[in-house]
Amino acid sequence: MLALTKSKAILLRNSCCKATVRCLTSSVNAAGGFCFDFTAEQKEFQGLARKFAREEVLPKAAELDKTGEYPWALIKKAWELGLINTHIPQKYGGLGLNSLENCMITEEIAYGCTGVQTAIEANSLGQMPVILAGNEEQKKKYLGRMIEEPLVCSYGVTEPGAGSDVAGVRTRAVKHGDEYILNGEKMWITNGGHANWFFVLARTASDAKASAGKAFTGFIVERDWAGVTLGKKEWNMGQRCSDTRGITFEDVRVPKENVIGEEGIGFKIAMGAFDKTRPPVAAGAVGLAQRALDEATKYSLERHTFGKPIAEHQAVAFMLADMAIGIETSRLAYLKAAWMVDSGHRNTYYASIAKAISADVANKSAADAVQIFGGNGFNSEYPVEKLMRDAKIYQIYEGTSQIQRVIISRELLAKAK
């Protein structure tokens, strides 16, 4: 049984809020500098997430991958335990965990199944524009309902013709009295088939030459409004239990009260959310990579060739070592990115570094695990082929690995000039 109830989780969070010790700091910090220790409360959250992942998620991962069934039972269990919506401020009923604490939880759940983790973490991305720029009424209404019952939401920016090029978004909202008339199509929307509401980025500027910083507005759109149509569930290469589909908006009437921030600043809000959500995405990639290393290590100690475990062959041992190097480095990268934003610093540079390196390490670790398993690794009866398929999306969603390098180089050069 999982011992921590949601009420106890809230008590734990209250204890965390009163503590002067935070992740990546300690009581030694004031006199002795940097420290990697976690508080007792944070260790308990981490332990709960680990127990949930390994006892509840991992045993169901293979079947969910085969069926593509949305993991509602696991999401509801995570909600009961306080492992979803953890970033929602206490003022609106949430636990108000910081980015680093969310990363700790995310890595553990991703170890069990990144499809389940993505379904859970997509809530963070969908809610983040409201957390960052929503008004009090919007936060009470749309964040509050996520606490009252197990619901999911979605982040609707990507379109069939606009992915990395967000400025190419064609979905349009035209103001008509006290409403906006929304028309357009979004694609690859995580949780799209089950979302209670969507964050939607739409073009509101009438001037086609308006800059991205002034052309778009963010809206909260409820799923059951007239004109919202869900597309078919896409059958993807990996993370198959994570629901992904297109969403069409046809003459959807959006009240002006559902504008996030103000008209024309939607692009800034949408992009600002990534500074908060990319560290947890990186943490998810690390969780997958850690699982790949653990599976490969276990197998390499059990499999014998030429009279000894294959782990004792230098070729295999060095592959394991390289996996460990990448994982530890990636973990440090996401911890730094999360710590930066939690400390009130702009973390765009570090968030992109964490996302890029973790995604690449997850893919290499999964591929190397398959190689260590040999022919068995290519077979679906063994766990690592799923890890290899699941890993690929980390180099694509929430900004491709190439886009991360664009951001990193831009930030780097801006500092150098």
Descriptive labels:
417 residues; alpha+beta; 4-stranded mixed sheet; 4-stranded antiparallel sheet; 13 helices; 10 strands; 15% strand; globular
In words, what does this structure look like?
The strands form three sheets. Strands 1-4-5-8 form a four-stranded mixed β-sheet. A four-stranded antiparallel β-sheet has the order 2-3-7-6, covered by helices on one side. Strands 9-10 form a two-stranded antiparallel ribbon. It is α+β, with helices and mostly antiparallel strands and 417 residues long. Helix 3 runs parallel beside helix 5 and helix 11 runs antiparallel to helix 12. The chain is globular. 53% of the residues lie in helices and 15% in strands.
Outline the fold blueprint.
Layout: H1 6-18, H2 29-32, H3 40-67, H4 72-81, H5 99-112, H6 114-133, H7 136-148, E1 152-156, E2 172-176, E3 179-190, E4 195-203, H8 212-215, E5 216-222, E6 228-233, E7 244-255, E8 259-260, H9 266-302, E9 304-305, E10 308-309, H10 314-342, H11 348-373, H12 384-391, H13 401-416
Parallel strand pairs: 1-4
Antiparallel strand pairs: 2-3, 3-7, 4-5, 5-8, 6-7, 9-10
Helix pairs in contact: 3-5, 5-6, 5-9, 6-9, 9-10, 9-11, 9-12, 10-11, 11-12, 11-13
Brief sketch in words of this structure:
Helices cover 53% and strands 15% of the residues. The chain has 417 residues and is of the alpha+beta class.
